[in-house]
């Protein structure tokens, strides 16, 4: 019985140590969510103004640009998948990977070859384990992306889109949208060619009542598009990285809170079992003492 009690105590110490770790990770993720939300809020005005400018140039001029023109007979599509570098975030990366798989199947059903680009080690390891081809990948910044990271990713994707041979005809983005601390949704969107009727501001009510001023384009509408559209793609990717980072921290906080709560319940259960084992051990010892005393009394009466 003493050995069983030692087993329970050892498990309680182990689970308590794990609970401390998950609690610390929960608190760290909670602090990082606030920073990630601030980053998203700070990037929104720039993205909105850039969206207004791109929409104004593209809709109020007769300029034809590769980034806004549908390619006839599109046969290749690039998919950028944003996942996490680390695990312990619940189904965050899994949901994004599933969304990318569904998008890939949809594009293949349309007769298009899919070229995959990945951000985050979880997505890279998933595709490597299944021997799936990846054109390029970027890791090390999923939880704290910078604009430079987004620019690096966007430059290669734009280069692949504008390549004369061996490039892609469409560019799709799969990321996770941060809705609230409890809700994060995996979403996909086509970045290129730009669908003007799908361009939306972050504030939909503002977008509906948006009134564009008159514009003069210098040196030309084509030159303005050459400068604005790459920045637009960069800002979209940067915003997706920030949204995904906030979602990753929220998912990790929720997963670690669940793990901490489960550890607490397991400690209570093990404590009850340890108490029962100790009580049984004490009862057995008392029984042995009483039994020994009765045996001595009986022996004394027999000798008399």
Automatic annotation (TrEMBL):
Localization: Cell membrane; Membrane
Pfam family name, one: ATP-synt
Main localisation: membrane
InterPro entries in UniProt: ATP_synth_F1_ATPase_gsu, ATP_synth_F1_gsu, ATP_synth_F1_gsu_CS
The entry's keywords: ATP synthesis, Cell membrane, CF(1), Hydrogen ion transport, Ion transport, Membrane, Transport
Chain segments annotated as transmembrane: none
Superkingdom classification of source: Bacteria
SUPFAM superfamilies: ATP synthase (F1-ATPase), gamma subunit
Membrane topology type: Peripheral membrane protein
Protein family (similarity comment): Belongs to the ATPase gamma chain family.
Matches recorded under PANTHER family: ATP SYNTHASE GAMMA CHAIN, ATP SYNTHASE SUBUNIT GAMMA, MITOCHONDRIAL
NCBIfam families in UniProt: ATPsyn_F1gamma, PRK05621.1-2
HAMAP family xref list: ATP_synth_gamma_bact (MF_00815)
Function of the molecule: Produces ATP from ADP in the presence of a proton gradient across the membrane. The gamma chain is believed to be important in regulating ATPase activity and the flow of protons through the CF(0) complex.
Assembly notes: F-type ATPases have 2 components, CF(1) - the catalytic core - and CF(0) - the membrane proton channel. CF(1) has five subunits: alpha(3), beta(3), gamma(1), delta(1), epsilon(1). CF(0) has three main subunits: a, b and c.
Protein name (database record): ATP synthase gamma chain
Biological classification of the source: Bacteria, Bacillati, Actinomycetota, Actinomycetes, Kitasatosporales
């Amino acid at each position: 019985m003493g050995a069983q009690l030692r087993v329970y105590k050892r498990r309680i110490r182990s689970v308590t140590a794990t609970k401390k770790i998950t609690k610390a990770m929960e608190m760290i993720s909670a602090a990082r969510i606030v920073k990630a939300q601030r980053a998203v809020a700070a990037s929104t005005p720039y993205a909105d103004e850039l969206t207004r400018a791109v929409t104004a140039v593209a809709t109020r001029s007769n300029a034809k640009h590769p980034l806004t023109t549908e390619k006839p007979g599109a046969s290749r599509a690039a998919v950028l998948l944003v996942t996490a570098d680390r695990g312990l975030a619940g189904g965050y990366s899994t949901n994004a990977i599933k969304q990318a798989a569904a998008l890939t199947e949809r594009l293949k059903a349309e007769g298009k070859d899919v070229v995959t680009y990945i951000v985050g080690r979880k997505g890279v390891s998933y595709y490597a384990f299944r021997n799936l081809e990846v054109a390029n990948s970027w890791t090390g910044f999923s939880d704290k992306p910078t604009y430079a990271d987004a620019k690096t990713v966007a430059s290669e994707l734009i280069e692949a889109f504008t390549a004369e041979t061996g490039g892609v005809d469409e560019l799709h983005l799969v990321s996770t949208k941060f809705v609230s601390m409890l809700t994060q949704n995996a979403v996909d969107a086509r970045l290129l060619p730009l669908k003007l009727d799908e361009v939306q501001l972050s504030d939909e009510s503002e977008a509906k009542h948006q009134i564009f001023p008159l514009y003069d384009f210098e040196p030309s509408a084509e030159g303005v598009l050459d400068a604005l559209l790459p920045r637009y793609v960069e800002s979209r990717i940067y915003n997706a990285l920030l949204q995904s980072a906030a979602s990753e921290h929220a998912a990790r906080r929720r997963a670690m809170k669940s793990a901490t709560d489960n550890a607490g319940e397991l400690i209570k259960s093990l404590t009850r079992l340890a108490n029962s084992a100790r009580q049984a051990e004490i009862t057995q010892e008392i029984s042995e003492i009483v039994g020994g005393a009765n045996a001595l009394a009986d022996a004394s009466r027999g000798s008399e």
